[in-house]
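This part of the workshop introduces the protein records we will be handling. To make this concrete, we reproduce a full record directly below.
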Amino acid sequence: MLALSGCGASGDDASSAADRGVAGPQQQRGGAAAGKAEAPAADSAGTKQRQKDPTPTATHVIRTASLSVEVKDVPKAAARARTAVQGAGGLVEKETTERIDSALDSSHLVLRVPQDAYDEVLRELSGTGKLVSRTSAAKDVTDQVVDIDSRIATQRASVARVRKLMDRAGKLADVVTLEGELSSRQAALESLLAQQASLKDRTTLATITLDLAEPETAAGAADDDPGFPDAVTGGWHAFVTMLRWLAMAIGAAAPFLGVAAVLAVLWRFLRRRRGAEGE
């Protein structure tokens, strides 16, 4: 009985030790599995956080303005506007200068300036002279730019797929069909690229339309001080006007003078005839 009890005790100790030995690796594996489960949970939480806080998209805005300014000297004001725009890194897209009534000058300029210098250049142009009118507008085209970029990426991938199909095509009919499809998709891609370039140009450079004109009062003040040439011109106009009126008077009296001349000739003829008969 003692021997059996000793064997039973040793067996229990061995089984308990074995159980501890098995339980230890199971706990380690459980801890590792728990760690792995917690890691994806943390990654998913980080992904959700990134989705909640997306990277902000750059804003694309088209800015336009129109100015009408009265200046004393149009050529000087136009030169000053060109200098201001070129100094800001812009350019003069169009310029038209003309003379009105042989006394007043006017100029029409279309200016392109960088977006960051838009406000400064606009203030400088407004101070060129007397501001008559000013209008400005801003249009946000960010969604349009993003849409064009996405469509370009998709269209490029489509063109690449068609090119791969052409490389694997073995029949002439398939090659002809794929060439037509490639031309169509390439044309669509070029159209999208042109729209992208136009949007980039209009969002990179703002457009300012500037109209310069001289005030009419300046011309009127100059006309108030006539000189010797003005006197000669006025006397010539008066002389021509007098001749015109004399010609009109002679033309109006011509019929009556003709009748009077005929009557005078008849009267003299009759008088001479009577004098001849009396003798």
Notes: Confidence is low (pLDDT under 50) at residues 1-56, 218-222.
